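Database export, one record per block. Field names are fixed; values are copied verbatim from the stored entry.
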Amino acid sequence: MRRFFGLLPLTALCAGLAAAAGGCGGAAPTQPLYPTPIPQGPYQPQPYQPQPYQPQPTVQSAAMTLYEAQMAFLRLPGYHTSMQFMQRNGQQVATGIYDLTGVPPYTLRIDIQQGTGAGTKLLWTGGPSVQVRPSGLLSLVTVNLSLTDNRIESLRGYDLSQTNIYSLLRMAADSANRAVLVPASEPLVEVTGPHLLAGCSRMFAAFQPGTMYPQMIEFDDASQMVVQMNLSGFAPDPSPSLSI
């Protein structure tokens, strides 16, 4: 025997409608289909009360912060700053104070004021070699060393092509990394990702408010800070002296 599901006899359908709406073809419902509108009184205007202006904070992304920092650096005719430097490799720690003079993007003169090699001067112009004027009796001689010569590499094996200011700014802005703004009194960006200094998992970069000149750069490994560069007195230098 065939069965028909979902089909009701017409009499049953009419009976259901009658129960819900007063019958099939019967009397009209006693309740109106729509409620009676609520009567409205005369319009009463409210006095205008001006509120004090509340400026909205500018939405600033980490990517925009890093872009502005790069552009501010590249626009400099030259610059001069003093850098307090720390680098850690296992139980070894190296510290120093360097006098930096440069022309963006890469030209950089370093005068080691304190720390290992104090009195040594270096000049790198972005190429594969570095001019070095040693301290002491050898200061009369200038030598060219390979950029990767271990005598001028850092404690952790980094060379100047990796640790100059512009390379570090580009590293922070690398699209493979993830950058976020950190709430602070100055623009501060935290960077994580695969394109950092070797052996490091996190980077912090702080900038001077307004000018966006670099102020501090740090790197951490999985457990502690391993690189720190504090830049003080960073300022434009319209005629930087690059001789060593």
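Remark 1: Residues 1-29, 32-36 have pLDDT under 50 and may be disordered.
Remark 2: The helical segments are 10-21, 62-74, 160-163, 165-172.
End of record.
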